[in-house]
Design goal:
Helix content: 40-55%
Oligomer: single chain
Number of domains: 2
Number of strands: 9
Low-confidence stretches: 67-76
Shape: globular
Largest sheet: 6 strands, parallel
CATH class of the largest domain: Alpha Beta
Radius of gyration: 20 Å
CATH superfamily of the largest domain: Glycogen Phosphorylase B
CATH topology of the largest domain: Rossmann fold
Order of helices and strands: HEEHEHHEHEHEHEHEHHEHHH
Length: 271
Amino acid sequence: MKLCALAKKLGKPVLYVAPPQIWAWKSSRAKKLCGVNLAVLFDFEKTAYAKKGVDAELLLHPFLLHENLYHTLPYLESRGTSSETLLLFPGSRLSQAKRNMGLFLSVAEHFKTAKLIVSREVLVQPLEEYIQKMGNGAPKNISIQVAPEDSEERRMLYGSGSAALATPGTVTLELALSGTPLVVATKPDMLTYVLGSLFVKTKFFAMPNLLMETNVVPEYIGTRSSKLLPQILRAMESLDPVKSRQLSVDLAERLGKGCVSDHFVEKLING
């Protein structure tokens, strides 16, 4: 936001992709973005900015660039999955991932195999050390893998699991679009939990729930593992692959509009 303000002051054009989530909190930030080229991924974001008098361009979600090839029920029903493989996404920040590790690894013990998926290479070593320090208490069935940068490669990886446990964020939508049965959970630090309870206005945190405006995937947020663990395990037992595949199609239909990002950039450059 500071860089954006400086560019505006210098009269430089700005393209802001995925701007602040004013629909969740601090909607006053929209006023600072008047005159900025905004690109959003979701209809409700475009609507939220429009209510504040700010225009935003809707972009096609990158997971839908090959929609005609992949986002059909026959494809989802014919894809192969690893038997009883759990995909774990403990968070994109190290502090967040470490807070979730104990809880997520406890869930992993109930599956034959588990893959801990991280967003950045720098997270691999500290999380490997975390698991090593657990000694005999660490699950024997777990491996760590960095998520591919390419969206198609991520879709193939995400579609390889029989189920996934993930923190709130973009990955929840990508998992749902991959047709993977999903539970969303996280352990925020106490301060974040209290402030979020006071100021965050959204009813849901998982992106599929926000987009469908109902609780289509189970989500649990709390500071106590002893309370979260049984809830997560019950939700895992109730996951339905057929419903997950249908959710993927429903989400693709809801997101299947907007311009492709390079076309949007080209339009801006050419005036």
